[in-house]
Amino acid sequence: MKLFVDTGNLKDIQALAEIGILDGVTTNPSLLAKEPGDYKQNLKQICQIVQGPVSAEVVATDSAGMIREGRELAAIDDHIVVKVPFTVEGVKACKTLAGEGKHVNVTLIFSATQAWLAAKAGASYVSPFVGRLDDIGTTGMNLVREIVDIFDNFDYATEVLVASVRNPIHIVEAARMGADVVTVPSAVIQQSFKHPLTDLGLKKFLEDWEKAQATRV
Ligand code: E4P
Predict the structure, then answer these.
(1) Looking at residue 52, what DSSP letter applies?
(2) Burial class (CB in 10 A: 0-12, 13-18, 19+), 112
(3) If you measure from the C-alpha of residue 217 to the centroid of ligand 1, how many angstroms do you get, rounded to a whole number?
(4) Handedness of CA 24, 28, 30, 34 (dihedral sign)
């Protein structure tokens, strides 16, 4: 399962890329709006750092506008994946952009039929939002299971990108279900590195080693 970070923050992306575990990045208008500077230059820099797929979202709501913005975004760098919202207009734009050979991520997926329609339009990725479903009392991961099953049945090339991830349990469940990608906020990735027993175990190993060294002549 590929790991993407869900952020527009250059420092966070750089730090994770340096660890060597990062496969890509997803952004959205809310995330990019938080970052200073020109968003196109920021996207270019993100692509240079991660050297993998970087989702950049259109803000137009009509298909002609989405296609125009999608072409502009794709021209920033070969690693850009054009993100379009799941609407009738978004699906139309996906079909056109995918037909031109651009990678498209159809976002704001909240049902399996939406995912299936996006796959039919040639999406490279669909993004089911698990955390936002959990927020309204529906188990978000059930949607991921449905989409993975449907795509497996018909061998769709569209990748299932689990989004709106809120905790490490979402990551584990996504991996167990066979999702292709999980996009995770930087804080949740950091949290996934930590376990108190690892810290305690390391402390004890080092103490024992030091003690043994001190008693040797
Ligand atoms: C996905 O690409 C979105 O950017 C993101 O995962 C949304 O997450 P949120 O529900 O935490 O805002």
Answers:
(1) S
(2) buried
(3) 59
(4) positive
CA distance 96 to 64: 10
130: Cα separation from own chain's centroid: 12
- Ramachandran sector of residue 101 (left: φ over 0; alpha: ψ -120 to 50; beta: rest): left
How far is Cα 19 from Cα 141, in angstroms, rounded to an integer? Answer: 28
7-38 pLDDT per residue, tens: 999 999 999 999 999 999 999 999 999 999 99
Cα–Cα distance between 75 and 151 in angstroms, integer? Answer: 30
- Beta-carbon contacts of 8 under 8 Å, excluding residues fewer than 6 positions away, are 27, 31, 32, 34, 35, 39, 42, 46
Write out the H or E segment, with its range, that includes residue 89.
Answer: helix 88-99
Residues recorded for the chain: 217
Reported pTM: 0.95
- In DSSP terms, 81 is beta-bridged to 55
Residue range 35-58, pLDDT digits in tens: 999 999 999 999 999 999 999 999
- Return the H-helix or E-strand segment holding 104: strand 104-109
Distance 92 CA to ligand 1 centre (A): 22
Q: What CA–CA distance (Å, rounded) separates 148 from 160?
A: 7
Q: Is the CB of 134 under 6 A from ligand 1?
A: no
Ligand 1 within 6 A of CB of 7: no
Residues labelled catalytic: 83
- Asked whether 114 lines ligand 1 (CB < 6 A), one says no
